[in-house]
Each structure stands twice: as C-alpha cells, then as structure tokens.
Amino acid sequence: MSTFDDQLEKIQTAPGFIAALDQSGGSTPKALAAYGIGEDEWDGEDEMFDAVHAMRTRIVASPSFDGDRILGAILFEGTMDRDVDGLPTATYLWARKRVVPFLKVDKGLAPVENGVQVMKPIPGLDATLERARGMGIFGTKMRSVVKEANPDGIAAIVDQQFEVGRQILGHGLVPILEPEVDIHCPDKAEAERLLRDAIMAGLDALDAGQNVMLKLTLPEVDGFYTPCIEHPNVLKVVALSGGYSREEANERLARQPGMVASFSRALVEGLGAQQSDEEFDAGLDAAIEGIFRASMA
Question: Is 289 a catalytic residue?
Fold first, then answer.
C-alpha cells in the first residue's frame, strides 16, 4: 500500500482529530504573544517565522503529540519548507509520529462583500501543489468567512471553495474546504442553514471518487452537519474552534456526532514559551486528551 493510501485509511478509519498549526503572517504575532513571545523579542519577518517554527517544533516533537490521538496536522507553507529534528516537517510528522500532513494554501481573505469574505487569489497554486505533493503532503486547507446570512455571498464562497477544491483534486491531493461562519454572525443559525444547503449541492456535483473534507464552525443546532458527514464524497468533517474557549469548543463538539476537532488557538491555549519541558508536555497532553475525548464523544 502506498503512503497516500495508508494516510487515506488513517483519515477515514482511525480515531483522533486534526491539529491546526497553520497561522500565517497576519495571525503569527498574535499566536506568538499568546505563547509568551512579544513583538520586542523578534525583529522582522524572518525572526518572527523562526520563533513560530520553534513553537511548532516544540509542539510536534513533544511526546504528548502522537498519532494515537492526532490524525493530521495542518501546516503553514513556511513550516512545510523547514525541518524538524533534521527531517522535512511533513516527513517528520508521518515517519516519526504517524500524523498525516496537510498544507494551508490560501493567501488570506478579500474585503467583506455581500456579508462574506471570499479568498484572495492564490497565485502559483499549481506549482505549490506539485511541490507539496513532492514533499509528502496529503491534502490542503483553505479558509473563507461568512459574516452574515447573505444567500448571494454564501453561494459565492461555496462556489469558490469547490472550484479551487477541484484544482487541488487534480493534483492528487485531498482538499479541506473551510467556509467558516463567524461565531459573532448575528444570524448564525440561518447562515449555517444557507451554507449547508450550498455545500450539499456542491458535494452532489462532484464525481465519484472526488473526495473532500470539510472544516466548519461548530453549529447552533446539534447534529446539523450530519448530512455532510454521511455524504459519499466526504472523508471527514472537522470543526474549527472559531474563537470559543477550549472548554466551550469541546462542550459544543461533544454534541456533534461524527464531527472531530481541527483546533488551532484552542489547542495551544495555556501553553507558554517560559514553561519547562515537563510543564509544557503536561499542558499539551491535557489539551490533546480533552480535544480527543470531545472528538470521540
């Protein structure tokens, strides 16, 4: 069986959740500050990315970060291009941890229009996808955001997600489509209804064997995304924490049958650069165990 087939089987059948370690240039200073590294401790973008890679390395190299509870990890492109313990990050994740590597491929969000933020253009995507495949990446992730229950805006987001998703599928990678609903959306439940209807139409238009994953906001109605989870073209539906605390995100997730976590900020909540390795590993272990249990509920 090929590495891709092994990874596909793991995503489809193994217990666990996906760790999102993909903060990009815009969100990295905030992630570092939460970790206890202020902007006065790095100078310029290169040092900033050195600092965040050191943080991510500490996470994935921790004995608490293991393939028994973690299905996959989503990487920022700069992380994919760096090493962990002398190995390319994607190789390290699979060879040492049995964690399936994914790559964030979007380049950020366009301004709000029709109550949503579609993705900015992604220049050079085909070349990035080929490079990622050559580096052992299994799939990709791309994010857009719904701010209001606007039917035209939501249709535009979903159309874009599936259009780029087909491009990714054409390179033999599995796309994670992430049309996030902002947790502060004033009509969140209605936005989720419109979004689910649009996603189901997009899924129904896929050919047999065109498998995708979905990363969605924890819904207002429990079990709301079951039709997506059960769709034959969907490998997995994962949940983003979206600004909820880890405690609330876990509570909401535990009420969603078949949905597992793909948390970023909530995963590293409470971890700090100044912690000893023992404190750090214990804190990460507790976070992973709590998220794992909520994912398996």
Answer: no
